[in-house]
Specification:
This is Disease resistance protein RGA3. InterPro entries: Disease_R_plants, LRR_dom_sf, NB-ARC, P-loop_NTPase, WH-like_DNA-bd_sf, WHD_DRP. Keywords: Plant defense, Repeat. The chain is an alpha/beta fold. The chain has four domains: 60 residues, no CATH class; 83 residues, no CATH class; 76 residues, Arc Repressor Mutant, subunit A, CATH 1.10.10; 109 residues. It is built from 14 helices and ten strands. A six-stranded parallel beta sheet has the order 5-6-7-8-9-10. Helix 4 runs parallel beside helix 6, helix 9 crosses helix 11 and helix 9 crosses helix 12. The longest helix is centred in the middle third of the chain and has 14 residues. The radius of gyration is 24 Å and the shape is flat.
């Protein structure tokens, strides 16, 4: 920490700087004071901008009046709504009237407008639009605290197979760059993708699922090329909150001993540091993901391997990339339901271990 503080002072000492701290949630006043003490060495005119959805954070971090962002103007809100909701239909005066009434409930929030408009773009009759306005939307208040409930309306109108696929995305950390091809392979491994048309592969059908969710506004920052390989995307923080809400107790991100010990036995899908898996109580895991976090000790010893193989025979997805282990126990073949195995990034993994590729679909 002393070295980091010294490096920071060296970077800003005597220099005029602009520092943006985006999406801050820490409400501890003492920690903010400690941070400010490290930032006082800049030249006159230096500025710090903090963005947050917490009014308490805004008050703690600012000596001036916080600037509260307002929603879009009526004209801009309608322009965005119209572009999405009427993309594939002629602009009927009756649809326009209903659409503007629905838009009043969106509070000018772009994400809400995009999501609601995306849901309506798949409804083809005036009756469906009126039903959406009079029934589902009528139960939602306009105040900011109901944004998540408004977004959930679009989730509620998804086909069941897309609901499973969206909720599964809760396993990714916030602001994580999602590789679409890998995400689709996860969906396939879990049995979410149904091959109704024999002329299409499961991968092609899964990619259609992704495009359907994207067109409804559930993803953002989708790569410019709409091709299969190399395509990435992200989820808005509020969409991630929605995925967490609808996933409930079946999915969890486990990044501390406390969370690991609290996750219930009904949990089926987890993102976890392998060293914490021994604290997990459930026995019916279907997904175990690992997103490298270099703040923790990355290791994978025989004891952890044995624990996973002995306790989680229902695993369908096992991703253990970026860990430091040399050998894979032959007992891994007892995981008879395993459909996706990722061991990439383990640079010292012995080449002889690659023989496991003939037992499972592997990524090495």
């Amino acid at each position: 920490m002393d070295q980091l503080q010294s490096q920071l002072r060296g970077k800003i000492g005597g220099k005029k700087y602009l520092l943006v701290l985006d999406d801050i949630w820490n409400e501890e006043w003492e920690e903010w004071v400690s941070l400010k003490e490290l930032l006082v060495g800049g030249a006159k005119g230096s500025r710090i901008i903090v963005t947050t959805r917490s009014l308490r954070v805004a008050k703690i971090t600012s000596k001036c009046q916080p600037y509260v962002l307002k929603g879009l103007s009526d004209d801009d809100a309608w322009s965005l709504f119209k572009e999405i909701a009427f993309e594939q239909r002629s602009i009927n005066p009756t649809f326009v009237k209903i659409g503007k009434q629905i838009l009043e409930r969106c509070g000018g929030v772009p994400l809400v407008i995009r999501t609601i408009a995306g849901a309506l773009s798949f409804k083809e009759t005036e009756k469906e639009w009126s039903s959406f306005k009079d029934n589902e939307l009528a139960r939602i208040s306009q105040n900011e605290g109901k944004i998540l409930a408004t977004l959930k309306l679009s989730y509620d109108h998804l086909p069941s197979h897309l609901k499973h696929c969206f909720a599964y995305c809760r396993l990714y950390p916030k602001d994580h760059k999602i590789h679409v091809q890998t995400l689709v392979q996860f969906w396939i491994a879990q049995g979410f993708v149904k091959q109704l048309n024999p002329s299409q592969s499961l991968e092609e059908i899964g990619f259609v699922y992704f495009k359907d969710l994207n067109e409804r506004g559930f993803f953002q920052e989708v790569g410019e090329r709409y091709s299969w390989e190399g395509l990435t995307c992200k989820m808005h923080d509020l969409m991630h909150d929605l995925a967490e809400s609808v996933a409930g107790t079946e999915s969890s991100i486990v990044d501390s001993n406390e969370i690991a010990s609290k996750v219930g036995e009904k949990c089926r899908h987890i993102s976890i540091d392998p060293s914490l898996i021994v604290l997990f109580k459930g026995k019916k895991l279907r997904t175990m993901l690992h997103f490298p976090n270099y703040e923790r000790n990355q290791n994978m010893n025989d004891e952890i391997w044995d624990f996973i193989i002995s306790n989680y025979r229902c695993l369908r997805v096992l991703e253990l990339n970026g860990l430091d282990f040399k050998m894979i126990p032959r007992s891994i073949c007892k995981l008879k339901h395993l459909r996706y195995l990722d061991l990439s990034g383990n640079l010292i993994l012995r080449s002889s271990q690659r023989a496991f590729a003939r037992y499972k679909i592997c990524k090495l």
